[in-house]
Specification:
Number of helices: 4
CATH architecture of one domain: 2-Layer Sandwich
CATH topology of one domain: GMP Synthetase, Chain A, domain 3
Strand order of the largest sheet: 1-2-3
CATH class of one domain: Alpha Beta
CATH superfamily of one domain: Fe-S cluster assembly (FSCA)
Radius of gyration: 15 Å
Structural class: alpha+beta
Strand content: 15-25%
Number of strands: 3
Shape: elongated
Helix content: 25-40%
Length: 116
């Protein structure tokens, strides 16, 4: 049987095509359910109009499908509520700070209503 930590590790190998942060730390993964060898993932995109959203969804499915013990993978895309910077994990926030600078990320988070 596959474990949730294994699924998370697999998801961390899939990067947003436009933002070089993995989909898990970017906060695009909303739910992971495992029932034996069946994995259900609920995810979102950074924008409902993301031109790479379907490709990233397929990449998520492929990454998890490779895990030992996985029989099937169902990836559900949920665009409402929309993705928000508050969805970033702490690691995701640090990665964004390294890419764009701490001040820029703090301003972006503040504008999005995210407080420390």
């Amino acid at each position: 049987m596959v474990e949730k930590d294994q699924v998370i590790d697999a998801l961390k190998t899939v990067y947003d095509i436009e933002i070089p942060v993995n989909v898990y730390d970017l906060g695009l993964i909303r739910e992971i359910r495992i029932d034996g060898g069946k994995v259900h993932i609920k995810m979102t995109w950074t924008s409902p109009m993301c031109p790479y959203g379907p490709l990233m969804t397929k990449m998520v499915e492929d990454a998890v499908r490779k895990l030992d013990g996985v029989e099937s993978v169902d990836v559900e895309v949920e665009l409402d509520p929309p993705w928000n910077p508050k969805d970033l994990t702490e690691d995701g926030r640090r990665q964004m700070e390294m890419l764009f600078g701490k001040e820029a990320v703090e301003r972006w988070l503040k504008d999005a209503g995210v407080s420390d």
